Automatic annotation (TrEMBL):
Pathway it works in: Membrane lipid metabolism; glycerophospholipid metabolism
InterPro entries: 6-PGluconate_DH-like_C_sf (IPR008927), 6PGD_dom2 (IPR013328), G3P_DH_NAD-dep (IPR006168), G3P_DH_NAD-dep_C (IPR006109), G3P_DH_NAD-dep_N (IPR011128), NAD(P)-bd_dom_sf (IPR036291)
Gene source species: Psychrobacter piscatorii
Protein task: Catalyzes the reduction of the glycolytic intermediate dihydroxyacetone phosphate (DHAP) to sn-glycerol 3-phosphate (G3P), the key precursor for phospholipid synthesis.
Annotated EC: 1.1.1.94
GO biological process: carbohydrate metabolic process; glycerol-3-phosphate biosynthetic process; glycerol-3-phosphate catabolic process; glycerophospholipid biosynthetic process
Keywords: Cytoplasm, Lipid biosynthesis, Lipid metabolism, NAD, NADP, Nucleotide-binding, Oxidoreductase, Phospholipid biosynthesis, Phospholipid metabolism
Compositional bias annotation for Basic and acidic residues: 423-438
UniProt name for this protein: Glycerol-3-phosphate dehydrogenase [NAD(P)+]
Amino acid sequence: MTSPNDSNKNNNSANNEAGNNTSEKQNGMLAGILERASKSGIGRKKSTPNPVESAVAKDMAEIHSNPTKLRLAFLGGGSFGTAMANLAARNGCDATLWVRNKRTVKAMAKTQTNKKYLPGYKLDDRLKYSHDLAATVKDKDIIFIAVPGLAFRETVKNIAPLISGQSIVSLTKGMEKDTFAMMSDIIKEVLPEVNFGVMSGPNLAIEIMKNMPSATVIASESEPLRHAVQAALHSAFFRVFASDDVRGVELGGALKNIYAIAMGMAAAYEVGENTKAMILTRALAEMSRFGVEEGANPLTFLGLSGVGDLYATCSSELSRNYRIGNMLGRGMSIDAAVKKLGQTAEGVNTIQQVHEKATKAGIYMPITHALYAVIYEDKAALGVALHLMEAGFRSDVEFVMAHDHSNAALTAHMKNSSNSAKDNTKDDAKSKNSDADK
């Protein structure tokens, strides 16, 4: 006969065993995530400092105590480039904003406003303006490039003969058309010896100009450059965080534009909060899945340049890509929508680039492929959305639970659905003809 004490011992033993099993499972999940992250390059990368990095490092003590020591050039007079140049000038840096058009430069200097991109917002008195590229970049410490993606390579080539020790930071989000080159790839190709970084995050320019609390990420393998950018732009209303995952931060800033278009289209159909939440979370899964294949750290997509930028861009009507998607959802053609916007919407090009890259590499990107079908294959948005909802079963968080679904399965499903719809149309037509004969 079993005594009460023996029973309690057995229960405790069973509980301990169950607890150990649970702990082992949790540790296994955590180990899986960390292993995936480590394979993607988590941890700081050490590189031999080049002369530019050494020069920045030498002045770091003075920069931290007195940011006015920093001489900065901002190339591109769009909304974000102007907002960052204004912030640097307000922090006391020697900041010059370069704009290609001489007449625009004169107007900005006279009115201290950017009437085209930031109308109604007065710029700091200390901000300088120039249309002379050589004079703008000469003797500067850091050159921030904020031109549209289509003009990025040309701009880097134009400043190449003028580089004499300056570092470069890209403020441009997106991919070069037809090459899949990120902005950092272009910098490395054209200026292989130059110290560089990229900046990205949930940074709507108008909100920054309104002094609404905001934050961004500066990513660079150079710690001195990261600190220099933080010293130049960090303020009471604008926080600058650091990362060494250049690829992940840059991909986050480019890929989120795809899903802002999707969210804008969804808003045109007046979807509910459940649908918006589903789009956001599945978009984040696509971004991290693609990023890992490109060598990024998956944990980067949980930060400001990933989920942070994704949320801001997908939630705001200030977003250019959101507005493009909304116009598409209301039946406007892509050409008409881009013309009406009057500004560059990087997501349109990014959809094409990522669709082609993911298809070749076998990366599962259903939302991206669906948008490609709508924009480039003239498929009906609502029909494509319904096909996505029927596209089989998947795991939720893929770093925890593996999956085996593929692009091929998705493509086959969408083709079958499309063929079924055509067959139904033919049957309806035959039925109508038969009724007419009767």
